[in-house]
Amino acid sequence: MVDKETLKKNIEDVMKKIEMACLRTGRKPDEVSLLGATKGVDVETIKLANQFGLKIFGENRVQEFLPKFQELPYLEWHFIGRLQTNKIKYIYDKVSLIHSIDSPQQIDELEKRCTKAGKTCSVLIEINIGGEESKGGINPEKVDHLIEKISNSSHVILKGFMTIPPIEDDDMKLRGYFRKMKEIFEKYKKLNYNNVNIEVLSMGMSGDFEVAIEEGATLVRIGTKIFGERPKK
Fold this sequence. Notes:
This protein is α/β, with parallel strands linked by helices. Helix content is 41%, strand content 18%. It is built from 9 helices and 8 strands. The chain has helices at residues 4-24, 43-51, 62-71, 88-91, 104-117, 143-151, 171-189, 209-214, 224-227, and strands spanning 33-37, 56-59, 76-79, 97-101, 121-126, 156-162, 196-202, 219-222. The protein has an 8-stranded parallel β-sheet with strand order 7-6-5-4-3-2-1-8. The protein is globular, with a radius of gyration of 17 Å.
């Protein structure tokens, strides 16, 4: 974990890199949101990061998220990890955005919970752009099916898409994955469905966020570049 001064510098450095990546491609820096991925990060460090300008925080695991939310309910929280349907009841009313929707069962559970609570829930569909068996997300060809499911709901709102591409040393291959996601994003942005308002393309992490921004990301999820290496669990 990083000390106070390093944390401040890391956040400033990442924000500067976001700005420069936007300028290289003629985008405005305010088109890209920065999310701090806080897996393994303690509450005090999260508080400091917020003081240093970080506004959005994302958790991967329900059991780690809940105690952090209890102490910091005033922050904007996103859920960015794989989400079991039976864990939805714990988070649906506590997060601003769920990044990892990839099944009709998740949508049914969200609809049921939100209807009962009189709330709506904003989500992203996770797309497995590299077709990797080890990762969550759906095949791009199955997007229509999930969008149709969401459009027939009344309390689940689709805001866009998320992806984690394969790790690539080849810059052009990596860009290819991000470009394919941008094409999907633009395609569905133009279509008119109920409960669908496509505006978020969540892609890019510590190792590739600058490339992701150059290829159209509107939200990047940064952990290590801000908080340093954390113990593997």
